[in-house]
């Protein structure tokens, strides 16, 4: 009897297992993958407007959209907007789940200070070292926030190759960005090698953005292969003036695009490149060896080239690359140790290096002398000390590979077995028109993808993705008019357009603003702000407009929630309305929205016994002058919401401990409180007014 019962009890489990097996995906199939990206182009700086960042950000945003990314993008963000935008993006990525892929692209100004890298908002006023962590966004905080989400992969791409316009107590900071290590499953990419910069001349698109868009579109490349080719292309386009850098810890399999079986063979196939890369330098010719050294982009690779081709015309250029890499690694190891002995060791190796000022500030912070002592425990670095002939490179605070003083030989063209010529449609890509909306990115002409290139099938495509849905529609798609274009660049009429290319899609559906930026635009409800003045003297003469007179017809929140009180309040007053005093932001929680440039104002509560005006009586009489009304007493002033003063910034030079949600403490942000930026707090209880001698609330 027990046998049949046992068999009956086991049957549901069998059927459940059978159904579960049917529901499983095919063997080896990848789980679904959501892709999200944040793209920012900061151009309208107080120190002067940059020509390319907004265009570059728009081109990368469009490319990532075609690759199935859900992209939010913006341009010209100030300190508050930049911080809120990063928080918006972290929230979006968190909701996507652990198998998501996140990408961040930032174009604009970046700088390094005391071993940390910072992204600079357009309104940053930086004149001394202590200003940097207060008025710029620390990169390590954003990296840690993404790492704590345990994503499949994340990309942090910084197109900040420009020389910094900021001076720290009259001296320029160390040039470029600092060498850093990625967090788990993260790739970090710089548009220039650590410690170097390149000129930001010309309009249109920068070489790094164009090379990145081109290489992503090729398909069939791993992240490492993508950025290896970007380095070769940018080196070629800039004649060696700009050499990008990247470092990766991504272990998961990832491709932006796949190449289908109908793809034509390439002379620069990944397999051939990998074979060339594995060969010893001495078995390659000098030109191929130079290309292999750039592909590897390591200290050992540049050392091997110099050992085998010491008389080649590229020797001096490679020596500069090796010198910069040696100093960057030495400083990184010094900063990680963060001891007086480590900083003294750096000062001994590089008495006139680019990080001397950083080392001295950190020594002072540790309570140690900045002078080199006679005896100390020298740090054991994993690389040898600099050679005497490297002094001309390391003694420059700002190093550019195209400096005429170096007299470098131009690099040879890239052989086709390393890099095929750049596609003509990328070469001829025209710059986009200036955007009309506040903070919106421009809209470049979209060049459609070849039929044999497509997004992997397991990628979850965001809904209503106009660029993705039109990726293969026509030779080029004009995202501004939502119409495909002929090969000559002229738009095809709507009657001849490919299916799905014309319709109700508009720019807002193509490039989404971050939620906090979109909310700010709605509150401002004004045209795009004009460019910021370039000089401080010009900024000083700008007069801040006064806030408009606040309508006396405003009904407080507690009255809207109490119909009985609202009825009594709406009765016409028997006497003229006294003026409403203005209080600072910290004194009360009655907020009024202000447009950019307006002074935030607060409405103080009405004194006890004075009836409030109704909405219908708003135009009957203006608010009398404020000086005729006595200041409210302490008994009728509402309890203010306590906004503690900003804490002192961390001075240790180390990354601050992040909060529970992966975001860094607010002490490193600008010490203003923006709408929606602070966490909500319980409101203080509103005072109950007296109307006609009776309490006005129940």
From TrEMBL:
<dbReference type="GO" id="GO:0004197">
    <property type="term" value="F:cysteine-type endopeptidase activity"/>
</dbReference>
<feature type="region of interest" description="Disordered">
    <location>
        <begin position="479"/>
        <end position="508"/>
    </location>
</feature>
<dbReference type="InterPro" id="IPR011600">
    <property type="entry name" value="Pept_C14_caspase"/>
</dbReference>
<feature type="region of interest" description="Disordered">
    <location>
        <begin position="597"/>
        <end position="698"/>
    </location>
</feature>
<protein>
    <submittedName>
        <fullName>Uncharacterized protein, contains caspase domain</fullName>
    </submittedName>
</protein>
<dbReference type="Pfam" id="PF00656">
    <property type="entry name" value="Peptidase_C14"/>
</dbReference>
<keyword id="KW-0732">Signal</keyword>
<dbReference type="GO" id="GO:0006508">
    <property type="term" value="P:proteolysis"/>
</dbReference>
<dbReference type="InterPro" id="IPR029030">
    <property type="entry name" value="Caspase-like_dom_sf"/>
</dbReference>
<feature type="region of interest" description="Disordered">
    <location>
        <begin position="517"/>
        <end position="536"/>
    </location>
</feature>
<feature type="domain" description="Caspase family p20">
    <location>
        <begin position="33"/>
        <end position="112"/>
    </location>
</feature>
<dbReference type="InterPro" id="IPR001309">
    <property type="entry name" value="Pept_C14_p20"/>
</dbReference>
<feature type="signal peptide">
    <location>
        <begin position="1"/>
        <end position="29"/>
    </location>
</feature>
<dbReference type="InterPro" id="IPR052039">
    <property type="entry name" value="Caspase-related_regulators"/>
</dbReference>
């Amino acid at each position: 009897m027990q046998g049949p019962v046992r068999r009956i009890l086991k049957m549901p489990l069998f059927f459940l297992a059978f159904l579960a097996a049917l529901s499983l995906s095919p063997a080896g199939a990848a789980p679904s993958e959501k892709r999200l990206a944040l793209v920012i182009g900061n151009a309208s700086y107080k120190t002067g407007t940059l020509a390319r960042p907004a265009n570059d950000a728009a081109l990368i945003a469009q490319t990532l959209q075609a690759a199935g990314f859900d992209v939010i993008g913006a341009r010209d963000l100030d300190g508050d907007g930049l911080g809120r935008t990063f928080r918006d993006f972290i929230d979006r990525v968190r909701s996507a789940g652990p198998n998501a892929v996140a990408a961040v692209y930032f174009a604009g100004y970046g700088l390094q200070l005391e071993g940390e890298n910072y992204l600079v908002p357009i309104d940053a006023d930086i004149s001394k070292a202590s200003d940097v962590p207060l008025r710029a966004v620390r990169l390590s905080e954003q990296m840690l926030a993404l790492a704590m989400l345990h994503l499949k992969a994340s990309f942090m791409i910084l197109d900040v190759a420009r020389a910094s316009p900021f001076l720290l107590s009259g001296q320029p900071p160390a040039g470029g960005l600092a060498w850093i290590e990625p967090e788990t499953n993260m790739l970090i990419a710089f548009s220039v090698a650590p410690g170097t910069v390149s000129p930001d001349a010309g309009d249109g698109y920068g070489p790094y953005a164009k090379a990145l868009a081109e290489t992503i579109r090729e398909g069939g490349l791993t992240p490492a292969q993508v950025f290896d080719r970007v380095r070769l292309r940018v080196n070629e386009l800039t004649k060696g003036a700009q050499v990008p850098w990247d470092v990766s810890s991504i272990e998961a399999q990832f491709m932006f695009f796949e190449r289908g079986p109908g793809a034509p063979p390439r002379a620069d196939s990944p397999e051939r490149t990998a074979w060339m890369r594995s060969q010893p330098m001495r078995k390659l010719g000098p030109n191929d060896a130079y290309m292999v050294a750039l592909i590897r982009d390591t200290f050992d690779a540049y050392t091997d080239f110099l050992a085998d081709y010491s008389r080649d015309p590229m020797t001096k250029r490679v020596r500069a690359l090796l010198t910069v890499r040696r100093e960057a690694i030495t400083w990184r190891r010094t900063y990680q140790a963060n001891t007086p002995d480590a900083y003294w060791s750096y000062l001994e190796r590089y008495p006139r290096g680019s990080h001397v000022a950083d080392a001295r500030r950190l020594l002072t912070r540790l309570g140690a002398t900045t002078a080199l002592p006679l005896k100390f425990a020298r740090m054991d670095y994993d690389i040898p000390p600099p050679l005497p002939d490297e002094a001309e490179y390391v003694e420059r605070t700002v190093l550019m590979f195209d400096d005429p003083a170096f007299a470098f030989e131009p690099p040879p063209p890239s052989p086709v077995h390393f890099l095929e010529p750049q596609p003509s449609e990328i070469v001829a890509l025209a710059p986009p028109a200036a955007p009309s909306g506040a903070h919106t990115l421009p809209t470049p002409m979209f060049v459609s993808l070849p039929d044999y290139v497509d997004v992997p099938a397991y990628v979850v495509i965001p809904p209503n993705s106009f660029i993705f849905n039109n990726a293969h529609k026509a030779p080029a798609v004009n995202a501004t008019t939502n119409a495909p274009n002929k090969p000559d660049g002229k738009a095809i009429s709507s009657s001849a357009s490919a299916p799905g290319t014309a319709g109700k899609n508009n720019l807002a559906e193509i490039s989404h603003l971050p939620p906090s930026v979109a909310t700010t635009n709605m509150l401002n409800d004004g045209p795009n702000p004009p460019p910021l003045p370039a000089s401080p003297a010009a900024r000083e003469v700008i007069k801040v407009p006064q806030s408009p007179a606040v309508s006396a017809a405003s009904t407080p929140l507690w009255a809207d929630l109490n119909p009985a009180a609202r009825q009594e309040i709406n009765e016409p007053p028997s006497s003229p309305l006294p003026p409403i005093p203005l209080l600072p932001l910290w004194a009360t929680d009655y907020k009024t929205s202000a447009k950019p440039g307006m002074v935030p104002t607060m409405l103080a509560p009405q004194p006890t016994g004075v009836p409030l005006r109704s909405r219908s009586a708003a135009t009957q009489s203006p608010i009398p002058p404020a000086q005729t009304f006595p200041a409210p007493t302490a008994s009728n002033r509402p309890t203010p919401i306590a906004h503690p003063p900003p804490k002192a910034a961390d001075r240790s030079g180390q990354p601050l401990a992040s909060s529970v949600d992966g975001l860094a403490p607010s002490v490193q942000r600008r010490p203003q409180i923006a709408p929606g930026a602070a966490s909500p707090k319980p409101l203080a209880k509103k005072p109950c007014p007296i109307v006609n001698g009776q309490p006005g609330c129940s």
